[in-house]
Design a protein that fits this description.
The complex is a heterodimer.
Chain A (H helix, E strand, L loop, with lengths): L24 E6 L8 H9 L6 H6 L7 E4 L2 E2 L6 E2 L3 E4 L17 E4 L4 E4 L9 H5 L6 E2 L12 E3 L2 E3 L18 E2 L5 H13 L12 H5 L5 E5 L6 H6 L4 E2 L11 E4 L3
Parallel strand pairs in A: 1-14
Antiparallel strand pairs in A: 1-12, 2-5, 3-4, 6-7, 8-11, 9-10, 13-14
Chain B lengths: L1 H9 L1 H25 L11 H6 L4 H4 L14 H8 L4 H4 L4 H8 L20 H6 L4 H5 L16 H12 L3 H7 L2 H4 L2
Classes of the chains: A alpha+beta, B mainly alpha.
Amino acid sequence: MSNLNIDLNRVGAKGALAEEADGKWGMVIDQDVCTGCQACVAACAMENNIPFVMEEDAAYGRTLHWIRIERFWEGEYPEVRTTPYQPMLCQQCGSAPCEPVCPVFASVHSQAQELNLQVYNRCIGTRYCANNCPYQVRTFNWRDYAIEPFHANDFDGQLVFPLHNQFNPDVTVRRRGIMEKCTFCIQRIHKAEDKAKSEGRAVEDGEFTTACAQACPTNAITFGLLDDSESLVSQLANHKHGYRHLEEMNTLPRITYLQEG
Amino acid sequence: MIRNFLEWLKQPMGRIAVLIAALSFLSLVAFGIFYTQQSPEQPIQFTHQRHIGFGIQCLYCHPGALRGPSPGLPTQTKCWGCHQQMQITNTSPKLAVLVNYVKNNKPIEWVPVSQVPDFVHFTHRPHVAAGLNCEECHGDMSVVEIAENPQVMNMGWCLNCHRERAGDDQEKLIKLTDCGTCHY
């Protein structure tokens, strides 16, 4: 790190970096058009090799979802009404609370992509980051779900895992005892960057999108380049209906939610 | 009990026992190191040396290195493309294995020698585009019979080269030493 130029005013505890700028990649979620259909949840699970945890673990609250649809209720019975659906995923904070608490630097800030990374091979499963995340979006692998026999079919005494055929080869299959979270589909970012570089140009806005945004039937989720002022996502991020979650905690989230009223 | 044992170790027999134990431990370690450094057994005794000697380019059999993450290992049909025209294919006992694969239409189950773990996402394309030749990582295959891996492909080895190549370019250094560049 000695030959990196680091502005000490921006360095917090244990070297966690805070970004002043808007960030590189961003997302806008329009809560007014979200129907809560959970297509993004399914698409995310398929794209990122997120396993099913089955009933017993789900009852313990050990569900593995990188994105979830939150719903709250307002008012006293019988005048109860639901608030608009709120897809909640890693906000890719510019000043992330999960980063300084990691004892092994598995939760680090990517300077190149300006994202919060989870380095699976470093993680030792202390779960400090999940406890410090104000958005509760980090999930923990309580078992080796990929090789759990309850995912297998028994063929003449041999276990066959049909779901292994739909694994995404670009994403690590996580093992037991490590933390994971939304990566903003960093494998797609890398693929798009690689393609752009081989063609000798920069990545264009709208060239690719995340799995959740791709699956959204109402186009409630917009993903793109935040540092490009012309891009759709940066224009929507400055919309007058926009707000950010727990902004008062100064985590500098990269996801803007739109909601009228 | 323990004192008796320590006393016995001081006797000539005890010393010999200690020597034998130490020797067997050392030979186990030596065997372990030797065994793990062997190149794996391949389904066909393919000689890289001879094929490169004929002037065949690396990319002819491993074309994926130019465009994608994986260079690919040749299928039996690719081998057969050249070998069906050659007289030696029908006479050589070594090539009978290949003929068998082709006749039964079975894939050749090559054992990859240069592999990275699941949590490392290596792509050949940018490395080839950066001007690296195959032999800089995989060694000079023109002197190797059965494919073997000359490098310990660990993260320090990757990062050494990345740091060297980035030089004083800060932006490049950040990109090339970023965790998210390989681990996701």
